[in-house]
Specification:
Layout (H helix, E strand, L loop, with lengths): L2 H16 L3 H12 L2 H30 L3 H27 L17 H13 L2 H9 L10 H25 L1 H9 L1 H23 L4
Helix pairs in contact: 1-7, 2-3, 3-5, 3-6, 3-7, 4-6, 4-9, 7-8
Length: about 210
């Protein structure tokens, strides 16, 4: 695994993190409605979820990818299809972007630290898009000889990249809420990320085992 591989993977991960999804909205809501401290605990839960995803996917990939060019190609084209789908979906969302509203109901005044951790963990683990990401994208960045080790490294990279972005979200929660939820900004964010995902997909299509 080279530094270029890690940078490419981190780039994809960052794009996914920046686009508002369940994890981002949870962090933003918690920060605005319940305070930064509990939002930090949410982030810890989300980060642990990525490590779990990486470990579980590595166990399955070990069975399917070991020295198998056929399995690699199958997963490669799943990855290509997934990236193209993400790109086209984002562009389509940009075309029909409507205002994203986030309620800041002050209910549940005293949530526990453990509850905040598990909320972040389960929001991550139960997100089908993340499961699909690990099943389709991971095989493109790891070698069949070192699946577990490299999967855990990539899981850690993803946890750090996403946690870093979410820390920015917390520190600038009020401003980012306005920025990320305005139709104009969201529209162009979807256009740009959609084009980049399509570019990643076409590049991935040319890779070989």
């Amino acid at each position: 695994m080279t530094i270029d591989t890690l940078i490419a993977f981190a780039g994809i991960v960052f794009l996914l993190a920046v686009i508002p999804g369940p994890n981002a909205l949870l962090i933003l809501y918690t920060s605005l409605a319940q305070g930064r401290r509990l939002a930090f605990i949410n982030i810890l839960g989300v980060a642990v979820g990525f490590i779990i995803h990486a470990f579980v996917s590595a166990q399955g990939l070990s069975l399917l990818l070991a020295q198998s060019s056929l399995a690699f190609n199958i997963f490669k084209w799943f990855g290509v299809a997934y990236l193209l789908w993400l790109g086209l979906s984002n562009i389509r969302n940009g075309l029909r972007m409507s205002n994203l509203k986030l309620k800041t109901d002050p209910g549940n005044i005293n949530p526990s630290l453990a509850g905040s951790f598990y909320k972040g963990l389960l929001t991550n683990l139960l997100n089908p898009k993340i499961v699909l990401f690990y099943l389709s994208i991971f095989p493109q960045f790891i070698s069949p000889q070192h699946i577990l080790e490299q999967s855990l490294i990539l899981g850690l990279v993803q946890a750090l990249v996403v946690a870093g972005w979410f820390l920015v979200v917390i520190l600038f929660a009020t401003k980012l809420k306005t920025l990320l939820t305005t139709p104009k900004t969201s529209k162009w964010l979807n256009y740009i990320s959609g084009g980049l995902f399509i570019s990643f997909g076409t590049t991935l299509a040319a890779t070989r085992l």
